[in-house]
Amino acid sequence: MSRKSAPTPRVSALTDTHAVYGWISILLHWITAIFLIALWLLGKSILNSDAAEIDAKRALHVSFAASIWLIVAFRIAWRFRSGHPQVRGLTVRTHNIAKTAHYIMLVLLIVMLVSGPVMVWAGGYPVVIFDTLSIPGPIGASDVLRESAWSVHSGAALGLLILVVVHIGAALKHLMFHSDDTIVRMLWPGKNTESQ
Predict the structure, then answer these.
(1) Is 80 in contact with 106 (CB distance < 8 Å)?
(2) Domains along the sequence of the chain with CATH
(3) Contact, 116 vs 156, CB < 8 A?
């Protein structure tokens, strides 16, 4: 009499495993990516605007940034908590390089999450979200601190932009020249379960 093999335990599609990103990671990745690209474009447009448009665009940039602040903070905390699944077909060396780049991007995001509000508060203003919610600053106005926060914020934005371009380029390289699941794993959980 043959014995039936035990059924394979089903892994939740919400959370990450050692080899697969879950829905939480996937959604946080794309939501953050879309908002950060929009914020970067809006931030760059402030520098090229007429004097009459600068305040309105800056207020919109601050409102968008503040409204997704908690989402981005949760995304950072989630990634540090969950680690980085190793995709099927990716070498350990490539995985470690990608993981390091991701962690640097997260650190730059943290810098931007802190320096953005500091820049506003050091200018003597509250952080206002779409004219509905005002968050007063815990610090007083300081031109020196405002300029320093602006330099840090813009430097982190530039560093993040460079890494995002490299990140996209590497993903496209894997899509076109490799037979691994680098792209697929960020679109649907469980598509690269062969490595589990």
Answers:
(1) yes
(2) 23-195 (1.20.950.20)
(3) no
